[in-house]
Specification:
Elements (H helix, E strand, L loop, with lengths): L1 E7 L2 E7 L5 E2 L11 E3 L7 E5 L3 H6 L1 H4 L12 E5 L4 E3 L3 E5 L8 E7 L15 E9 L12 H4 L5 E9 L10 E6 L2 E7 L7 H11 L7 E3 L14 E6 L3 E10 L7
Parallel strand pairs: 5-14, 7-11, 8-16
Antiparallel strand pairs: 1-2, 1-4, 1-11, 2-3, 5-6, 9-10, 9-14, 10-11, 12-13, 12-15, 15-16
Protein name: 4-hydroxyphenylacetate degradation isomerase/decarboxylase domain-containing protein
Keywords: Isomerase, Metal-binding
Organism: Alloalcanivorax balearicus MACL04
Length: 258
């Protein structure tokens, strides 16, 4: 089953989503899609993972054997997307003037209950479901230390349009991700190429900090990031989950609009 958060007739509602992608209220009412605003699929802390696709890591192996790194990462490279980055389906993403902006398609894992020191064997029991994430960023020089200035601009993490129940996804490690810009495919990957699978990521994170219901684990972006410009329509699709759409605007000093 698919679930979403929307703003409809002045109030926030959690709804189910039917096979025709129309939101359905608790009373069975089909909501008028033209009169609602999609909200981010989850409101918890957003945890990101860098360098979690084999092709991306392999392409950078030579530099990891040079100073200051000396060797490739032996554990997941983690970062946080701050609350101001949270964005939604059909939300705008502002490209800072004079900067390059790159979308990042990723599978989002929504935590369903409090998790502390969880084993890999039990990790998926703590998952509520899965959502589509577009983790926008400015180009980065250091993957070992993802830069706040590059990762944490307003609206730089779109989630949605909905999340899908965990049990409705047969294998989260075999999902195709695609990113299109103005209808043209620019990036493709598969969660089969994750270096650190979802149970390992949950175990690693929950070893030193408590995860709470609604937190989202962004499992990483496949290789092939591209630049986007003002006016571009960016669609992020994950097999068996759905398509997240965002429009690129130029930052003139205001806030991103959802």
């Amino acid at each position: 089953m698919r679930h979403a958060k929307v703003e409809y007739q002045g109030r926030v509602r959690t709804v189910t989503v039917g096979p025709d992608d129309l939101p359905i209220g608790d009373d069975g009412e089909i909501l008028d899609a033209t009169g609602l605003r999609w909200l981010p699929a989850s409101g918890g802390t957003l945890f990101g993972v860098a360098l979690n696709y084999r092709g991306l890591l392999e392409a950078r192996l030579p530099e990891f054997h040079q100073p200051p790194y000396q060797k490739p990462p032996e554990k997941p490279v983690l970062f946080i997307k701050t609350p101001n980055t949270r964005n939604a389906h059909q939300g705008t993403v502002a490209r800072p003037q004079g900067e390059r902006l790159q979308p990042g398609p990723a599978l989002g894992v929504v935590i369903g209950r409090r998790a502390s020191r969880v084993s890999e064997q039990d990790a998926l029991d703590y998952v509520r479901g899965y959502t589509v994430v577009n983790e926008f960023s400015l180009p980065e020089d250091s993957y070992y230390r993802p830069a706040i200035k590059a990762k944490c601009r307003d609206g730089f993490c779109a989630l949605g349009p909905w999340w899908v129940d965990r049990d409705d996804i047969a294998n989260p490690h075999d999902l195709t991700l695609t990113l299109t810009v103005n209808g043209v495919e620019k990036q493709r990957g598969s969660t089969a190429d994750l270096i650190w699978p979802i149970p390992r990521l949950i175990a690693e994170l929950s070893e030193f900090m408590t995860l709470n219901a609604g937190d989202v684990l962004i499992t990483g972006t496949p290789p092939g990031r591209v630049d986007v410009s003002e006016g571009d329509q960016v669609d992020t699709t994950i097999e068996s989950i759905g398509t997240l759409r965002n429009l690129i605007v130029t930052d003139h000093g205001g806030e991103a609009k959802q």
